[in-house]
Amino acid sequence: MSTTKVQAKPVAVERRRRFDRRWAGLALLLAAAIYAPFQLVPFHVFQLTMVLVYAVALLGLNLLVGHAGQISLGHGAFFAVGAYAAAVLMDRWALPYPLTLPLAAAVAFVLGLALGVPAMRLRGLYLALVTLAIAIFLVPLLKRFEELTGGSMGLTLAKPQPPAWSGLAEDQWLYFLTLAIAVASFLLAASLLRSRVGRALHAVRDNETAAEVMGVRLSFYKTLAFAWSAMFAGAAGCVYTWVIGFVSPDSFTVNLSITLLAGLVVGGLGSLSGPVLGGLFVMFVPSISQDVNDAAPGVIFGLLIIAVMYVAPTGLAGLAGRLIKKIPRKE
Length: 331
What we know:
- The chain contains 14 helices and two strands; from the N terminus they run ααααααβααααβαααα.
- It is mostly helical.
- Strands 1-2 form a two-stranded antiparallel ribbon.
- It is globular and about 55 Å long.
- This is Urea ABC transporter permease.
């Protein structure tokens, strides 16, 4: 047997062990997620539901920022588009709520595609300013079209009710709906990143010049990254409307976009577990900051971000990975 084959065998065994451990961990996590709503009070079930909503939104932002290397400070705008698309379809046209999900995602996808075309010529701070401008002017735009969006008062909607055969309470039904959509979204994103599109996005992120020399169409993949990112945000916004039962322009200010980006960086860029950890951050840290100091929650929020970045510069996902590697393994 050659030396190369002898060396390749332990590598293959180690890869298989990593694969098995990963799937075992995912199965355990999914089992815990299914078990949780039956043990928690309704408010805590609602909090976990919102964590999943934000995780789906951050999954889209991660495709754009973490995997394509494009900065965006306007992701909250696409989230709002999905939320309002679902709200308008349900309130004005009485469309059944299951149909609003693909339509809201499609509307956000088209908008992301349209905005991605001019944005593909920009990079760095210039791209950040353009996306920030989108988030800034969205709120007054929503208030202007009062007949459609409800203006400053927003729209109040009936939440999806659990079918009689399920035996679930309303909060549990909304949780499981959101969990199913989150699992499907993560599987779709993982499949996308393993495909040719994912490899092209990584090439654009690492070195645009080298990627172009290798035949990667920069304009096409940058625009596609914006569209996919917006689609996931739109889907998350739609589910947000189901869960909250109310939308208003003041729920989607520029602070939402900044908080989402901060949550992704804290969770871990370029990692599939980063959006989940970021969702926990977006859901709980602002409320913790408010409880610690009512006068200056923003100061506490900023200090917490600095502390996390000091301890885990690659995000919480990177920190967890380093800790796992330090665990002694049995031969």
